[in-house]
User: Fold these one by one.
Assistant:
Number 1:
Amino acid sequence: MPERRPRLLKRLALILLTLVIVAAAALYVLYFRRTPLPAAAPHARVVPAISTIPGIAACWVETGKTFSRFSFGSTAGSVLVRDPAGDLLIDTGNSSHFDDEIRGFPFGTWLKLKSLAGELKPESPLPQLLRQIGEDPAKLRWAILSHVHLDHSGGLMDLPPLPVLLTREELQFANDPSVQARGYVIAAHVQKFPSVAAPTLQFNPVPYETFDESADLYKDGSVVVVPLRGHTPGSVGIFVNLSPERRMFYVGDAVDDERGFEERVGKSMILLDSDNAGKVADQIVGRLNDLHEKVPGLAIIPAHGRSAYKKFFPGGPQSCVSNQYTR
Ligand SMILES: [Zn+2]
């Protein structure tokens, strides 16, 4: 029977091809396909006056990454703002004890955390990376979290104690047992936060860009925080103004990556579940798209959007940009 073997091989090849096609289709549906969202309602822009403050710099501190060779690669970690009035850490990435922190969750929750945030586990602990760029972690003035999810707050477990800026609504969310049960917020991280009774971040009714409220951290317009409620109830975005021309807007997980605000698309299906209030989160995507069109020179940086970091920090991870920087 000389024909049997080629037939078997043919069948195997067909099965393999089918598997590859199914896997590619699943990846497309789960990750690459995004829902186009309606445009935001028209909103006035309040153009801020920005002065160039000597000595300010922003540094990209990357603790974890995936698919870094591809344009869709993602990142996690911190943006360090060096300021003569005291340095600020924006987000902190995952804890170096990530695997221990998620161990006790039910299998489904564990698997989700392990395969999503777990892919962005720190390769080196945050304090070590900070020291590499000449920053003493013990001298940080404060940290601000775009929101309290584990892949943004975990680095606090590796750092010396420091004040963490959070709004009352985000602290309430973080302390909610049902939220912690879903795995996105880790009880041990919440111990590093201020108490619900003593929030450390409050907005003033001062319009800024296309937002109605804002908080000017250094009272000099260099770092301005605005609410981005939706992904979590107290999610925030952080403007860092190095000079009138060199500005970034760190938007946490309000969008997955640059496609979010460029094409006005919502979250990937695989990440939809992480939005606490989907409809409100979708409105924020519209608002960011509107801001991007009104202020094209502003570098909008999604927390995990590696390609956006690479544009703002041409020196790559562990590099800084300042207002003195010229290419
Ligand atoms: Zn995240």
Number 2:
Amino acid sequence: MSEKINIAIIIKSTGKNYRILTEDGEYLDATLKGKMRTHGLRTTNPVAVGDKVKYSIQEDGKLMITDLIPRKNHIIRKSINLSKETHIVAANVDQALLIVTPDKPPTSFGFIDRFLVAAESYNIPTTIVINKIDLPGTEERIADLMMTYEMIGYPVILTSALKDKNTDKIKDLLKDKVTVLAGHSGVGKSSLINKIEPDLFLKTSEISAYHQKGKHTTTFAEMFPLSMGGFIIDTPGIKGYGIIGLDKNELALYFPEMADKLPECKFYNCTHINEPKCAVKKAIEEGEIPESRYKSYLNIFNEDQDKSYR
Ligand SMILES: Nc1nc2c(ncn2[C@@H]2O[C@H](COP(=O)(O)OP(=O)(O)OP(=O)(O)O)[C@@H](O)[C@H]2O)c(=O)[nH]1
Ligand SMILES: [Mg+2]
Ligand SMILES: [Zn+2]
């Protein structure tokens, strides 16, 4: 008699313990087989939220995760303690919502662009959500953010979780998809989810009045089923996202507005820095590509590869 192969999705991981959703729709606890720890990338967590895994039922009735099913994509951040190791935030997502704020805390263009490059390199479609649009005195910054990203083709939604503004637009996007919410601590990821699925009662907290930064209220990524179909993954706010194994000469491919121009550069291996007849630089001069995007391109291009995982 052959043993039944059980498959499940990781819903939550807190160190050694995992919450899984089985194919039968049951939520159960499982641990990880020790041997699995060497699997795949050099990461602090071999299995992440969103991963599909195989598990077995032991004699004592406990569940053990035995295999990781190859991922279609993943989002990583640099591990805090071990400089060269990375931490997988979520895996197998259909799309990302990058939550950004004009203030409290301010989200920089550099941070947004790093995320977008990582998402492009993993083929994760991203919508930019500008939250906290109710904050007074932020109109200019909001317009700047919105224009920059709409101009280059990213969908942008303006929301206020506080005033429940446009949260229905987000709801429409989520139906039947696995969506990860990303962004700094304190931008309102958990607050937005609470507006979309009020029964979840996710914990949220005020940002620090002194530092104007979030307090890392959400500490583990967790996936929640949506009543309209689909799943949403709430994640802990982080300082930066990882771009792994990226070839500098391919970097422009992950800036879609630059990728469009590449065929018109005089040199096929143009880096868009000092070369003559560079179509990317021409587009920047003509205002077709935002300066802030080119600045991010240069920053990532010139970065020490060892430090580029953040
Ligand atoms: N003014 C304003 N405040 C908001 C809005 N959305 C969230 N907040 C507040 O921002 C603070 C942080 O919100 P959270 O939802 O905890 O932020 P988070 O992104 O989940 O933060 P972490 O879990 O730390 O990553 C809370 O005090 C919220 O009430 C908004 O649209 N407008
Ligand atoms: Mg949170
Ligand atoms: Zn060029």
